[in-house]
Amino acid sequence: MAHQASEPSKTLPVDGMSRWKELEPFCPFSREKFRQLVLAGKAPPAHRLSERCTAYQNRELHRFFADPVNYRVAGK
Length: 76
What we know:
Layout: E1 17-18, H1 20-23, H2 31-39, E2 46-50, E3 53-57, H3 58-66
Antiparallel strand pairs: 1-3, 2-3
């Protein structure tokens, strides 16, 4: 029996962390624009899990997607 890739999730989990490919279907911005928003403190920051693995906290992503215009990183 051949291994089939699972279908992408239709929702972003509330808990946990997501990499860009898991977040991309829900994001109204390009990867570069999202990166610029992160640097400006207007989008959730990425967390380095290893040299080649970066992920975002899902709770912060949900907060951002609920009100992207007024979102600010706590403490900035």
